[in-house]
Amino acid sequence: MSTEATFLERVFSRAPLARNTGIRDFVFHHWTVPGRPTAEAVGILPVPGVDADRFLARVMDVNHYVGNIAHVVESRAVADPAYVPPAQVRFYQRISIPLLGEVHQENVLTLSERDGIRIGSWFLLEPATAALSPKLAIRSQYNDGAWLVGKDVVGYALSSAPRREDVGLLKWKALTAGADVAASKVIRDNITHMARWASR
Q1: How far is 164 from 177, CA to CA, in rounded Å?
Q2: SS3 for 126?
Q3: Average per-residue pLDDT in the chain?
Q4: CB-based burial of residue 33 (10 Å sphere; 0-12 exposed, 13-18 middle, 19+ buried)?
């Protein structure tokens, strides 16, 4: 099973959205994974009337993340015959983390569905990310995530950490333990920004 698939298994085991039909406020779950320096997390926010097709079309529109999604400073599709839109897209992304610097990576986004929940999930292309310049930005060591769209709710799940060799000790602590502390707010903000963009 791929890392993306096992990540989604962990997400759905802790946040079974298909059964959470009465969500009235932001819900946040996080958990540790052996051998990983950061916790994984999922947040679920009520978004009344969310249109899954329109929302996931925005998720797949990686060329227009800048200006619509907070902290994204560069995002572009990368042509690759192994990943063909609209069901999949390979993309490069660079994100600014306030006070800490920038992180970049190459990922693949894939559309799917499970238990009536529409999903836009991604995984890190490790060789392509390793080949990026650590002088431009910190490279990701791993990065799995998913957008989850159900009836009147949107979820966002994430498992991410930087490459240890790209950062000093203080930044490492801030980007691992510090990121775990900030995860709830970051996830809620991401859902809010994507939902706002999708509604336009």
Answers
A1: 13
A2: helix
A3: 92
A4: middle
Distance, in Å, from the CA atom of 190 to the CA atom of 195, rounded to the nearest integer, reads 8
Query: Rounded distance, CA 106 to CA 138, Å?
Result: 12
Q: Tell me how far apart the alpha carbons of residues 130 and 30 are, in angstroms, rounded to a whole number.
A: 27
| Structure-block tokens of residue 25 | 């406020």
Residue 80: how many CB atoms within 10 A of its CB? 15
C-alpha to C-alpha distance for 42 and 113, rounded to whole angstroms: 17
**3 state SS of 54:** helix
Under 8 Å between Cβ of 194 and 46: no
User: What tokens appear for 196 in the block?
Assistant: 């706002």
CA–CA separation, 10 and 69 (whole Å): 26
Per-residue pLDDT tens digits for 79-99: 999 999 999 999 999 999 887
- Count of all residues that appear for the chain in the document: 200
Other CB atoms within 10 A of residue 116 CB: 9
133-176 tens-digit pLDDT: 999 999 999 999 999 999 999 999 999 999 999 999 998 998 89
